[in-house]
Amino acid sequence: MRSPIGDFDHATPAPEVLDQLIAPVAAAVRQWQGPVPADQVLYVDTDPEKADTVAFVETYGRDLLANSANCVVVAAKQGGARVLAACLVLSAARADVNGVARRQLGARKVSFAPHETAVGETGMEFGGITPLGLPAGWPLLIDTEVAALPWVLVGSGRRRGKLIVPGKALASLPGAELVEGLGRHAA
């Protein structure tokens, strides 16, 4: 199958390559209940050595700069408790964790979760964290610009491989909240 975005050799419906996905992501695909059929969630194989943004777009297509999103794990302090959440913003933007995310989560302070926490709590590889298969109960803040895209490239849970998902399907993921202005664009 031809990929709807990027220059990938092959795009495969994710339900056909569950063995290529880590356990929490494979479970999310198996239990898919989004507004599009699960076979519209596509998997593309990528070289983990080309994961850096510049090398990635040179290899897989310049259109990916405008059609990819990063999923970052944040830690919010609410009262005496720490709550983990994920933020999904366009790759060309930075998550506004101290402003928009903090207010949306009703937290006193929000910061990026340490590497060990992000990897340990999600069961995903650093640099491949994806909004599909996040731990139950986590808030998933999604910038409205991401959800408005026809197709979005996101991580697959591993550094090797990516998922291409219809933007509108992201809003139906467990814990998803659409948030205006979550991603800040560089001036």
Query: Which outline best applies?
Result: globular
Strand order of the largest sheet: 6-3-4-7-10
How many helices?
6
Per the CATH scheme, the topology name is: YbaK protein
Largest β-sheet summary: 5 strands, mixed
Poorly predicted runs are none
What share of residues is helical? Answer: 10-25%
Describe the structure concisely for a colleague.
InterPro entries: YbaK/aa-tRNA-synt-asso_dom_sf, YbaK/aa-tRNA-synth-assoc-dom. The protein has helices spanning 23-30, 53-60, 97-105, 115-122, 144-147, 167-170; strands at 12-13, 42-44, 69-78, 81-90, 93-95, 109-112, 140-143, 152-155, 162-165, 176-179, 183-185.
Folded structure, characterized:
The chain is of the alpha+beta class. It has one domain: YbaK protein (Alpha-Beta Complex). It is built from 6 helices and 11 strands. A 5-stranded mixed sheet has the order 6-3-4-7-10. Strands 1-2-9-8 form a 4-stranded antiparallel sheet. Strands 5-11 form a two-stranded antiparallel ribbon. It is globular. The mean pLDDT is 93.
